[in-house]
C-alpha cells in the first residue's frame, strides 16, 4: 500500500487511537510483535508483514471501528483483484465488543473495575493499566478473559454498570447461538425478554473468530431420532464406530504455481473433532501428491465395510473446475475420488451413504451478489422436472452403482472459494458448526437440511468484496441424520 497515504494517516492519529488499533489487532498479529509499538507507522509495518495492507479493506475496517471515518478518504480502493483466495482475517467481534465497552466506560467505573479485579490481578498489573484496554490485556494474560472466558468480565461489570454487562451477555448469547459448545452460559442467567441484537460482523461470526480458537465441544446428551419416524426413510446408523472419516489435508505445495494453504490445519482439526464426536474413526493424511491421493483411496476402497454404516472423505486442497490438486500440483478429478467407492467397486458400501466434502476452488471466477434473483418456479413444477431428469427404472433389488453419494462442494463451478489463513476455510468451518448444531438438536435434521443452512450462512457473507456459494450434489436415496454417539 502507498507509504505516503499511510504516513498521512499516522499524522492524524493520536496515541490513544494507536493503542486502540493495537488492541484490535491482537490475535491477528502475534502479541510479541505488537509490543513496543508507539505510533501508527510501526503498526502498519506489522500489518504489512502479515499481508494485511495488500489493499485498504482491513485498514478501512480498523479506522471505521475507532470512528475515524474521516480518514477513509485517504484510502482509495485498490482496483486489483486479490491475488489469493484466502479470506483475510477480519476484526474479531470479541475485540470489537471489548473496544465498545472501553469507549462507554467512565473514568469512575474504570477505577471501580480495577478495584474489583485487584484480588485476581497482581498489584503490578493493576498499576500498569492506564486504560480499560490495558486492563483487558492483563486479564487475558492472567487467563481471566478470552473469547470463551467471559464470566469474570460479566460478573465485574454487573457490579457497577448493567448496560455494559448486558453488552457482554448479548455477545455470549450470539456466539452460543452460532455454536452452542464454545461459550459457557453465565452462572446466573437472567431472562430480561430483550431481543438479541443482530450482528453486522457476518464474516467473523460465521467462522471461529480470528483469535484462533478451534471448535471443540463438551459431551452432549445422546439424543436418538424419534421412533415415530418411518425407519425405511433413514439410513441405518447402528454401529459404533459408524465408519471411517478420511481427511486429505494439503497445506505445503512443492511447485511454484500454487501457494501454501495457511489455515488448513484448523479445518483438519475441526473435522477430526466433529466427526469423532459423531462416531467416526478419523484418519488424517497430510500433504499427498496426486498419485498418493489415488493410491490411498484405492487401498481404502478394498476394505471390508460390512461393519460400517457410512464413509466420509474430506479433501482440503487447491482446485480447478472438476478437480483438486495434489501437493505436486497435478490434478485429481472429482470422479476419481468417488469411483473407487461405487457399489460396483466397493460392494460392502452398497446402500450406505458415502459423503465427500471438498474444500477447493473450482475456477478462477468470483461469485458476485449484485444481480437480482429471478422469481422461483412453483415447487410442484421443480419436483416434476427433477423426476423427469433424474429418475431411472426400478430393477428389483439391484443398486445403482452411483447411488448413495453426497458431494459437498465449497463453491459452484467456475468460482473460487475462500480460506481464512488464521482460522480455516469459510465452508468447512460453517459445515462443522452446522453439524454440531444438528447433532445437538432434538430435531430430525438430515444432512441435506444441514447443507442448506451452510449454503445460507456462507452465502450471506462477503469475502474480499466477493460472495461464495457452496454446492451440494447428491444421489442419496434416504435421509441421513448424524447425531452424537
Description:
The protein has 485 residues and is an alpha/beta fold. The chain is built from 17 helices and 11 strands. It has helices at residues 3-12, 15-25, 31-34, 40-49, 57-65, 93-104, 107-117, 123-127, 132-141, 151-158, 162-178, 264-277, 290-301, 334-338, 379-390, 426-439, 447-460; strands at 243-249, 280-286, 310-316, 319-320, 323-325, 331-333, 354-359, 405-409, 419-420, 424-425, 471-474. Strands 2-1-3-7-8-11 form a 6-stranded mixed beta sheet, with helices on one face. A 3-stranded antiparallel beta sheet has the order 4-5-6. Strands 9-10 form a two-stranded antiparallel ribbon. Helix 6 (93-104) runs antiparallel to helix 11. The longest helix is centred in the middle third of the chain and has 17 residues, at 162-178. The chain is globular, with a radius of gyration of 25 Å. The N and C termini lie far apart (51 Å). The model is unreliable at 77-88, 187-229 and 370-397 (pLDDT under 50).
Structural features:
single chain, 485 residues, 6-stranded mixed beta sheet, 37% helix
